[in-house]
Design brief:
The structure holds two protein chains of two kinds. Chain A is an alpha+beta fold. Chain A has helices at residues 12-23, 43-46, 67-77, 91-124, 131-151, 165-168, 171-177, 184-187, 190-200, 203-209, and strands at residues 3-6, 28-31, 56-59, 62-65. The longest helix of chain B is centred in the middle third of the chain and has 34 residues, at 90-123. Chain B has a four-stranded mixed β-sheet, covered by helices on one side. Chain B has ten helices and four strands. Classes of the chains: A alpha+beta, B alpha+beta.
């Protein structure tokens, strides 16, 4: 029975999982969820994710939500296939992957999320972006990127000299961020820029990026 | 060599790590970090943790930060001793991960903001934003409704056993209930109440509270 992913091709969190599925070369079915009709907030969907959010993965009779738990599950289940995203053969490397997974989750995400939300999502709802919120978060993101710049001066990727799930988790939001007027936050930091160009040019991500059409007419 | 945990025992994120260490019966040494004087933002500490936050652990010459990464490492390294905090099968582990993510993304920020506005800022002599605190409280009501629904069907968040998913909530809920005057969020919900009674009375957690007293 194939993997079923409920979500949409332009969603940041859905594409986090799609990228992982492609890195692992897995067969799956993408089941669209009609966000504009509020499908995700209605009882049939809420039975899958009580928080009413996409994506949701169904693997036989296992249902999972939270994109970062889904990618961790896929990376673990298929650890012998495709790209080694978790470094499961080395406890220390695996732990360092976990550190930078948390850094993305706790430091990078909160800042970049606000910028992407204000710039891309609000206009879709007919609202105006709040520049004050954007400015505060640009400053926060800048500080986080300073830490990344120093880190990536010592290692090729975040957890070490190897691509891992920690790098992958950054792709979707950063891709949209690079379409905003503030892409210079990445481009002005040489190590971060090199890392970004490297990870975003991986075939698995390029495939997924084709569907990431937020902000395009 | 004993594992070193850098951070004050009173802070929530170090407590998350200490709870895990005590559950697993792992020896450790706490190295106090004086947050009030900004020790965590000074250059020598930034070498340990570039974001200037606690906790940091040093396991021999292996250093880690981010409390949720640390507890996963400890639970994996000491999988053979103490209670199983990770789950056995791949599916069980995935569900533990799912609820850890829920704690990190749907729960933590609301509690953090609320505690910041109601407790921490006033302690520092600044004004807390009560309207913001109230908004967080209302959102937390909805989150706890989801937890109530889950815990009415499952003894613990990830299934029949206590795991990292439950452990990760201990410091924040303790802050809500004991310090921020938000006990009603728990007590008004039957299954959440029973779950909280259970997990907050675990010997390991009580041990951590004693250390922090």
């Amino acid at each position: 029975m194939a993997l079923k992913l409920h979500g949409i091709p332009m969603s940041t969190c859905t594409t986090r999982v799609l990228t992982c599925l492609h890195e692992k070369g897995l067969d799956f079915e993408l089941v669209p969820v009609n966000l504009f009709a509020g499908e995700h907030k209605q009882p049939p969907f809420l039975a899958k994710n009580p928080f009413g959010q996409i994506p949701v993965l169904e693997d036989g009779d296992l249902t999972l939500f939270e994109s970062r738990a889904i990618t961790a599950y896929l990376a673990e289940k298929y650890k012998e296939t495709g790209c080694d995203l978790l470094r499961h053969n080395d406890l220390k490397e695996a732990a360092l992957v976990k550190v930078w997974l948390e850094v993305e989750s706790q430091h990078y995400h909160p800042a970049i999320y606000q910028i992407v939300y204000q710039f891309f999502v609000l206009p879709l709802q007919g609202k105006t972006a709040d520049q004050a919120i954007i400015d505060v978060n640009l400053e926060k993101l800048g500080k986080v990127l300073d830490v990344y710049e120093a880190r990536l001066g010592t290692t090729k990727c975040l957890a070490g000299d190897f691509y891992s799930l920690a790098d992958l988790h950054h792709l979707s939001y950063t891709y949209y961020f690079m379409k905003t007027p503030w892409a210079s936050l990445i481009n002005s930091r040489p190590n971060v820029k090199t890392w970004w160009e490297d990870i975003s040019s991986r075939p698995a991500f390029k495939k997924v990026a084709e569907g990431m059409t937020f902000g395009e007419k | 060599m004993v594992m070193k945990v850098y951070g004050p025992v009173r802070a929530a994120c170090p407590q998350r790590v200490l709870a895990c260490l005590v559950e697993k019966g792992v020896e450790f040494e706490v190295v106090h970090v004086d947050l009030d004087s900004g020790e965590q933002k000074r250059p020598d500490f930034l070498l340990r943790q570039p974001f200037g936050q606690v906790p940091v652990v040093e396991d021999g010459d292996f250093r880690l930060f981010e409390s949720r990464a640390i507890i996963r490492y400890i639970a994996a390294k000491y999988a053979e001793q103490g209670p199983d905090l990770l789950g056995k099968s791949l599916e069980e582990k995935a569900v533990v991960d799912q609820w850890l993510e829920v704690e990190a993304h749907n729960f933590n920020e609301l509690v953090y903001t609320l505690v910041l506005q109601l407790l921490i800022l006033p302690r520092m002599g600044e004004r807390g934003d009560l309207a913001l605190a109230h908004t967080c409280e209302q959102k937390l009501e909805k989150v706890f409704d989801v937890y109530e629904q889950r815990l009415s069907k499952s003894r613990y968040l990830a299934g029949d056993s206590f795991t990292l998913a439950d452990l990760s909530h201990l410091p924040a809920i303790r802050n809500l209930v004991k310090e921020a005057g938000m006990a009603h969020l728990v007590t008004e919900r039957k299954s959440v109440s029973a779950w909280w009674e259970d997990i907050s009375n675990r010997a390991a957690w009580k041990n951590v509270i004693e250390l922090a007293a």
